[in-house]
Amino acid sequence: MISFNNVIVGAVISVVLFVAMLFSSCRAFAQVRENSIITTELVQHLALDDVESIMEKGPKLVIMWSLDCPACFEELETISLLLARQPNLPIVLISTDDDPSRTEEINQVYADRAFRKLPRWIYSPNQAQLLRYTIDPTWQGELPRSYYIDENGKRHGHSGLLTEQQLMTIVGLMN
Amino acid sequence: MTRFILLVALFSTSLFAQQGIDHSKHGMTKKAPSSSCTAGKMACAKTVSSVVDKQGRIWSTWSSEQQLYLNYSDDLGRNYSAPMLVNQIAEGISTRGENRPKIGVDELGNIYLSWVTPLNKRFTANVRFSYFDPNTKQFSVPVTVNNDNLLTGHSFNEMVVSQAGDVYIAWLDGRAKVAAAKKGIRLRHSELYLAHANFVQGKKVFDNNYLAQGTCVCCRLAMDLDKQDLPMLMWRHIFGDNIRDHGFLTMRNKQQANPMQRVSFENWQVNGCPHQGPSIVGADNGSRVHMSWFNNATDASGLFYAYSDDGGSTMSKVTNFATKDNSPEHPFLSLSQATKNTKQKLQLVWREFDGQRFIIKAIFSELGDDWSEPKVIATAKQGVDYPYILQHPSGSYLQWHVSGQPLGLIKL
């Protein structure tokens, strides 16, 4: 006969194993701080193989940003406000900072409560040009850079800050 | 139909057929950091800046783990001296892309170093400075160049040094943002500031002089000296409604600027960060200033070149010498030294990426009117730093820095 205690122990072990498997299989950061695990679980390093699936058919909005881009933070602020009202918007965030020493700083930005449900990516170390070219060879690296991807997979690129009004129009297209 | 109109209105139609890109050709393996990258090793630096003194000694500076280092080579980079530590107290040092430490030298062989130290708040930093006296073999204690004592942006420092030891440091300054924020205004541009000191002549404190407002906040500055050894500056400016073209100015004296001139007219409208600043070089004789820059307007994209003979009031015909196909970036202009047998030559190098490899290309001209065909100088798959030209008594060299490899010099 299985005792109640054994059930509890078994359940705990199962949960621990499941969580361990989840974290080992989703390529979550190796250097995630303990206190930010919850908010960074969807943060992954972007490799070339990931680009195709991210840029496939939408509707969705993919936004490239960088720690070195003040306009990007303005856009992220607007996105954050937007998500506070509509948490399930199909938005993907990609940090183009490919310097591994900046991961913690990027995680601080991604820890914004509003971003929790979003897929959040960081360029893999030292791959900035290769990833930029793979995402869009006609894009010259200016930021922020956004792609609205429609339901047929057609990509519409935009360089520079999206205003709140522009974002609301895109939200209308995505709903 | 309504959706289509909305999309056209919202997005530039830089649509592209992405199908069929073969990722396998890109060398997808992630490069592991080299275990031989010990602290202070120049080969592992993200960026390296170099200068050549009158004797042909090449001085290089780089940052590693919050320390700035200096070394030299007397045999064109085959051997380097042991690295010398500039800052005894560790501090953050910006060393990415166009925001990197700068180095200069005067006729006495004093080596001048300037860098940017990021502060705790995002987009705030100070411009820092130290110099090396070759006689005492000592570095001066690092000082902060900007004198506003404000927690705000001071970045993208650029430095030129005259033979007489006049040190000019320019940067993008955020002190006006602080003043505007107190009034509830959010400024989206920076101001251009210039500092001057001369340690040889005993002026040991940098003054700070406002030059212009309305600069883009995330692109390098370009600076060179004119015939009077006064600075000339070119930078990405914001004209009207986010038109990011270029401004240029000369100096009336060491502290006061002549009015800014607009010198590029591609009309790239973008409310964001191009991360691409210009390059200039002034002719040794006459008043011609050669200029090169990147722009990405719908009908005018890639790298451009033009010159001015009157301080930017009028510009020569503009040459679009590299179109955007291979993502050309970071043009760097230089003038070779004339010899008994050769005339001075104008040299222009830049970096491209063709999807598989980085390519450093060069073109050459006598006066800037006619240019040679582009020549490939070097290629590599990964980790290629921006190109710079060093003028050495034995010729002109491309500084070839590939992360993890010894610094190379390739004769042009």
What does this structure look like?
The complex is a heterodimer of chains A (175) and B (412). Chain A has seven helices and six strands. In chain A, 43% of the residues lie in helices and 17% in strands. Chain A is an alpha/beta fold and 175 residues long. In chain A, strands 1-4-3-2-5-6 form a six-stranded mixed beta sheet, with helices on both faces. Chain A folds into two domains: 1-28; 31-174, 3-Layer(aba) Sandwich (Glutaredoxin), CATH 3.40.30. Mean pLDDT of chain A is 81; it is low at 1-39. Chain B starts with a helix and ends with a strand. The longest helix of chain B has 9 residues, at 2-10. Residues 12-34 of chain B have low confidence and may be disordered. Chain B has a domain at 39-215: Neuraminidase (6 Propeller). By secondary structure, chain B is mainly beta. Chain B is globular, with a radius of gyration of 21 Å. In chain B, strands 5, 6, 7, 8 and 9 form a five-stranded antiparallel beta sheet that branches. Chain B has two helices and 28 strands. Chains A and B meet through helix 3, helix 4, helix 6, strand 5 and strand 6 of A and helix 1 of B.
